[in-house]
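Quiz preparation item.
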């Protein structure tokens, strides 16, 4: 190894160390440049396009479509807030909101499976939304919506939704059907918002089993916001067998604080219908529970009305 520069002048120890450091830096930079050119970056795949459709609410005839299932998240459950539904300039009836809690959906392998059906009527123009806002199990549900006599449109996934339908009809009856899309048994919350002069919604074919089943199988529970002071009303009947029932009304954000209780001896309905005064602007949850021992598969029809 030479210890001299090309000029023949002797190098000091410091100079030799300086040259060595420069050489190391140059070699490092050259190695980095080679590595980056040898490993080209992978292109990012394009996100799949999502197709949207709208339910006709004039009401007029509509088509039937099914959206692709939503990919399952890693978490064991999913929860989200309902889409906000502001009023429109031509709206004549204020927006009503209700959330039905813990609807149990029968698996497709159940020979006695029946979809849950919810009906309500909109009054005048405005926005309508129907959304699954919570699921305690990661499973596919099939949500269908129809306005008037139109063919229903269906969407399938973990949390299918119709977040922003527009109605221009003076009055339109909406029909929602909800079922499991596979062999699982989803337990879901369903949020509905619609323009209504006197809000009322009806659940048909709800599960209403006795003890020792879980509360979700034994009850109907719905949260609503009273837009003005007035009376809330619940009518309910069940078949094929008689059962005793208990009812609670809670005030405040779900599940709220109980402000009223009622009990019903073994029978096939609430008689007379339950009513209770509610304050304008307050949130309430009404829950009807089968308190009898389980004997037969019981189907519930419940109609909730509120101011």
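Solution:
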């Amino acid at each position: 190894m030479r210890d001299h520069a090309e000029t023949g002048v002797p190098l000091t120890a410091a100079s030799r160390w300086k040259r060595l450091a420069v050489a190391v830096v140059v070699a490092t930079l050259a190695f980095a440049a080679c590595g980056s050119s040898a490993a080209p970056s992978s292109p990012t795949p394009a996100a799949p396009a999502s197709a949207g459709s709208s339910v006709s609410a004039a009401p007029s005839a509509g088509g039937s479509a099914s959206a692709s299932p939503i990919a399952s998240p890693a978490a064991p459950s999913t929860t989200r807030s309902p889409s906000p539904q502001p009023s429109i300039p031509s709206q004549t009836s204020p927006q009503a909101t209700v959330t039905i809690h813990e609807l149990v959906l029968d698996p497709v392998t159940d020979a006695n499976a029946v979809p849950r059906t919810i009906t309500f009527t909109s009054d005048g123009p405005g926005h309508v939304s129907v959304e699954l806002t919570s699921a305690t199990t990661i499973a596919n549900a099939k949500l269908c919506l129809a306005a008037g006599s139109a063919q229903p449109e269906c969407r399938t996934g973990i949390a299918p939704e119709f977040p922003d339908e527009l109605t221009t009809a003076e009055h339109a009856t909406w029909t929602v059907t909800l079922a499991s899309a596979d062999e699982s048994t989803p337990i879901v919350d369903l949020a509905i918002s619609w323009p209504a002069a006197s809000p009322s919604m009806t659940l048909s074919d709800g599960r209403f089993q006795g003890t020792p089943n879980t509360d979700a199988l034994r009850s109907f529970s719905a949260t609503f916001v009273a837009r003005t002071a007035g009376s809330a009303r619940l009518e309910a009947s069940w078949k094929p067998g008689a059962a005793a029932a208990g009812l609670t009304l809670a005030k405040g954000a779900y599940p709220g604080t109980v402000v009223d209780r009622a009990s019903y001896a073994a029978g096939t309905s609430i008689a007379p219908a339950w009513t209770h005064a509610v304050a304008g602007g307050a949130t309430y949850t009404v829950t009807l529970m089968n308190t009898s021992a389980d004997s037969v598969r019981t189907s519930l029809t419940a109609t909730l009305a509120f101011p």
